[in-house]
Specification:
The structure is a homodimer.
Chain A lengths: L3 H13 L23 E6 L4 E5 L5 E2 L4 H13 L1 H7 L27 H10 L8 H13 L7 H10 L1 H12 L7 H12 L2 E2 L1 H12 L14 H14 L5 H7 L4 E3 L4 E6 L3 E6 L10 H14 L14 E6 L11 H10 L3 E10 L1 H12 L7 E12 L1 H16 L3 E5 L4 H8 L6 E2 L2 H16 L22 H9 L2 E5 L4 E3 L7 E15 L5 E8 L3 E2 L13 E14 H10 L1 H26 L6
Parallel strand pairs in A: 9-10, 10-11, 11-12
Antiparallel strand pairs in A: 1-2, 1-7, 3-4, 5-6, 6-7, 8-9, 13-18, 14-18, 15-16, 15-17, 15-18
Helix pairs in contact in A: 1-12, 2-3, 2-4, 2-10, 4-7, 4-8, 5-9, 6-8, 7-8, 13-17, 14-15, 19-20
Pfam families (chains A, B): cNMP_binding, Glutaminase
Subunit structure (chains A, B): Homotetramer.
EC number (chains A, B): 3.5.1.2
């Protein structure tokens, strides 16, 4: 099916093809012959998809759009401070070819006007057997994701007619802003302006800027974030010359245009936009380029103020674990301990992004908890993006809490956050599901507030939750029919797709169940420990095991084999009824737990 | 517990109190006596929480920070075009008190320099019995969330010494940029600069700008989004005068400072920051204000490039419904139809934000589907923010799909999105859970590709999925023990907390189950239809009904009462074993379905 975005761009392209204002650049004879009707719009996403309409593969010279890229290379080579001594970052409010040098020092106002751009070019030195200019072209190529070349014809014409830029280079040399011979600098600058790009190339270059400096097609990191912050900031205030203020007000994206008819705009984090159409307005920018950018920004909500994500409160729900118990059956002693102490552990469900606003709301919620809350379980499964400030603040919360003997626990479904903490050597207890995190918290509370009666390492079959509805003599009679087995760490006890083989009761140790996820992933489902059962789930899926069960450490189990159950049904139907009834109840206890876990929670 | 953000701000405040550079404003005698050690930092969130450190309640005059607010009022009063004819939006690159009028027209470069600010003030007319100046103060007060007043003493001193501003007003009058008598305009301007604010006020004013123009304390919409986009854009390029470029590069937030020592900065969507400290730098901005903003921006990642949310692909998983069947048992005919046609319905799980980038990835995924996919189920439960562009694109997708006889279905847990579509009169089928959406899709496919055999309106007890493992004569024997009941729409069949009363088999019609959510919400859990069972769930929760079951339309059921089951266990234990075994399998089929529904899916 035709994409609505593609068809939107096609409609816009058709409509703006009727806009005939402006004239192609006439300053260089070699550029005068361009076809004014050439027109392309490209939009590249930060994951590397490029929408293309019109003459998107047509090559033209990059001209002033080269400026932010050379500036970025200079900043990467020399650092911000060294470059700042040569070129300021202030809007000049002047046209691209104005002189705009600071009185006394001769420092150009910014790197988007010609004086600043010439200076930036002068700062790129050769290295590794490559000339400075070779490095410039390779830098642009890394942005575009393909090898770019120079139009020799246009370069020659620029070199022949570039009196004003040569004058600027000499003037800059007189102030010692440019420190080498000015003519070769001007020639490198003419060459950089003569690099051939397509509209598609420009959109990928813009998307690389939008994508934190990483080219979304090649995956290569071309600029680091600090430099890219600087480049986009200067583009925002100075990129459109004397039209910069109106541009930012109206279009709201850092941008750069060139007299070759190209224009690119960047919405950080989202997309790169490029337009090619040679006729220019009075500011030297493509008429259709400006209009297309304006229209796309309005229609798609791309203005930086509008595109800012609402920094919502990240707290989805907050409740103590008594509202969402693990559901694990406990001894009476343990149940008493939990009843009295469940308020000491609290689940806070977060969602959205942990950028500043989300992080702040999380920090505030945790800081405001009563000091009697000892364990704070942060359910991060619905959190989308986690900024560095969130990790810092979590670390500070953890430190402050630890001083008071309190602790943080994460529920982190896919484990990505827990992994980032582990890499930093500051692991936090983390679990894939709420049930397991709450189980952990309950165990902590029982360990702190109960005694050894509460947490037996070994659970007798007769005491297992599954058989608890049975009379003692019935449970004992079933136990007598079971076989005892022992497994070592990592042993597979049940394998996926095996036939129902009976019900396993864990006497001591624990097992882990996994299942294949879609598209070849493997999903850890649960950890089961002493007193719990497995194997019976196969009854719900045509008698086939749906999970693989592995020993986690040494495990002792008792097995009530499938054949024994069948025999029991004919030899002692009364006891068989009791067994099946108990298993039904246990199964529905599971269903109940899942329903509670998945129920929609809405905070008032 | 002390919040880490509060303690971060306190540490910063202590540290920067040692920074003694700069001098308080000396241009007006009444302002010369200020204590240079007064110092406050406030940070207000878009949900209205204010962090305050230092002298946050101390009043001082707003001075130039008034400019963006008066400009916003002028834009609201007259519209953008009318104001633009009087004041441009270009950075002047000059100091705040430079003249910067366009040659010929006299139009000030922007509303952040004095000439533009005087012009904006001249545009505010009285109305509703209020003077223009009264309206200005009320506008500022709406931003601050409290009634602000004027320092008469400072106003008098400004009025006596404001020769330069009076000159500017007369000059603007000579160009007819100001159309009334210039002296009263200058006096209103001196008065607006003399409005008293606290650092806390400024942070709330900034948070109102960050919050799309709605004051987070009062909930009042003070500016509309179009005007606020403009105001923040002009603050970004011109707010810090001749320091604007360096500020945006380094701090990366639209901002405004005043010679009274105040400074505010805005991160759209996230927060408002304000600092008060009278000693000024050469640009007329608070030394500590600039340094505190810089530090907070770096430490919290607030630069507009860095704070931009990564526009990730919103597609979490995509699979056809055969990979996630509803689990509802079908007739053999229906099962055949589904086996052959399940690929015609596809679930696409989305997450993150549907701003531009997320929307684009959704649109692309749907557009690229094979045309044989007729029903596209968008699982929106993990989607956080939905921008207008997402609704537009969903609408366009729906229209394009409908032309080809294809359709969209939403899974929208909390129903918010479905509601927005309904309000616009363009309702889409939407469901709270994946299971119910898939059931709907299955029914559609069966209706399209099957015949009347497939979807019986009435299901005999013996054919219910729960009893399907039984031999036909056993199922018939159980059916003979059941009582038939009929209910009307809305009748409560089982009420929460009732004791286990037996197993209900739905013969025709459907029922809805609900349960109380935390914090007094009510959660709709499921719709059950002919062939399905209820009541047995109570066995999993100490024999107490955990849900309320209501008739949805007229419903006929057969009930196998609890007492009948008990009697059966002693009179016909073999049949009782078969019943309980069947119920166990059915229960585990439920567990299996839940596990599949909640399993973590990770896309490769």
């Amino acid at each position: 099916m035709d994409s609505p975005i593609q068809s939107y761009l096609r409609t816009l392209h058709t409509e703006l093809a009727g806009l005939k204002d402006g004239k192609p650049f006439g300053g260089i004879p070699a550029m005068a012959g361009v076809d004014p009707d050439r027109f392309a719009i490209c939009l590249a996403t930060v994951d590397g998809y490029v929408y293309e309409v019109g003459d998107s593969g047509e090559e033209f010279t990059i001209q002033s759009i080269s400026k932010p890229f050379t500036y970025g290379l200079a900043l990467s080579d020399l650092g911000l401070e060294a470059v700042d001594r040569k070129v300021d970052v202030e809007p000049s409010g002047n046209a691209f070819n104005e002189i705009s040098l600071a009185p006394g020092t001769g420092r150009p106002a910014n790197a988007m006007i010609n004086a600043g751009a010439l200076t930036a070019t002068s700062l790129i030195k050769g290295s590794g057997g490559k000339t400075g200019f070779r490095r410039i072209v390779e830098h642009y190529s890394a942005f575009a994701g393909r090898d770019l070349s120079v139009s020799e014809r246009i370069y020659q014409s620029e070199a022949r007619h570039g009196y004003r830029n040569r004058a600027l280079a000499h003037l800059l040399r007189s102030f010692e802003i440019i420190e080498q011979e000015p003519d070769p600098v001007a020639e490198d600058y003419f060459r950089q302006c003569s690099v051939l790009v397509t509209c598609r190339d420009l959109s990928v270059m813009a998307a690389t800027l939008a994508n934190g400096g990483t080219n979304p097609l090649t995956g290569k990191q071309v600029l680091d974030l600090e430099v890219e912050e600087r480049v986009l900031s200067v583009m925002a205030t100075c990129g459109m010359y004397d039209d910069a203020g109106a541009w930012l007000s109206d279009v709201g994206m850092p941008a750069k245009s060139g007299v070759g008819g190209g224009l690119l705009a960047v919405l950080p984090g989202q997309l790169g936009l490029a337009v090619y159409s040679p006729p220019l307005n009075d500011h030297g920018s493509s008429v259709r380029g400006v209009e297309a950018s304006r229209r796309i920004s309005h229609d798609m909500g791309l203005h930086f103020v509008r595109a800012a994500r609402t920094g919502r409160n990240a707290i989805r729900a907050s409740y103590d674990i008594a509202d969402a118990p693990s559901g694990i059956r406990r001894t009476d002693e343990a149940a008493d301990v939990l009843r009295d102490n469940a308020h000491r552990a609290r689940v806070i469900e977060l969602n959205g992004d942990l950028l500043f606003a989300g992080t702040e709301s999380m920090v505030r919620e945790v800081s405001d908890l009563d000091e009697s809350v000892e364990l704070i379980i942060l359910d991060m499964r619905r959190v989308d993006e986690t900024a560095p400030v969130a990790l810092d603040m979590l670390e500070q919360l953890r430190t402050s809490l630890a001083k008071a003997g309190r602790g943080l626990v994460l529920i982190d479904g896919e484990g990505a956050l827990a992994q980032r903490f582990e890499e930093d050597g500051r692991a936090l207890p983390s679990f894939a599901t709420r049930t397991s995190a709450v189980e952990f918290a309950e165990n902590q509370l029982i360990a702190s507030y109960g005694d050894e009666l509460c947490q037996p390492a070994t659970v007798d079959v007769a005491d297992s939750p599954a058989l608890s509805p049975l009379a003692a003599e019935d449970a004992a009679a079933l136990a007598a029919l079971m076989e005892e087995h022992s497994y070592d760490d990592g042993d597979v006890i049940r394998r996926i797709r095996q036939r129902f083989g009976g019900v396993y009761f864990i006497l001591s140790g624990s097992v882990v169940t996994t299942s294949p996820g879609p598209e070849n992933s493997r999903v850890k489902l649960s950890t089961l420990s002493a007193g719990m059962t497995f194997g019976e789930m196969a009854l719900g899926s045509a008698d086939r095991q749906e999970t693989t069960v592995r020993a986690h450490g040494t495990v002792r189990v008792k097995l009530l084999p499938a054949e024994t159950i069948s025999r029991l049904e004919s030899e002692n139907p009364r006891l068989a009824v009791e067994l099946w009834k108990a298993l039904t109840r246990d199964a529905y206890a599971h269903v109940d737990r899942y329903m509670r876990e998945t129920a929609v929670r809405i905070r008032d």
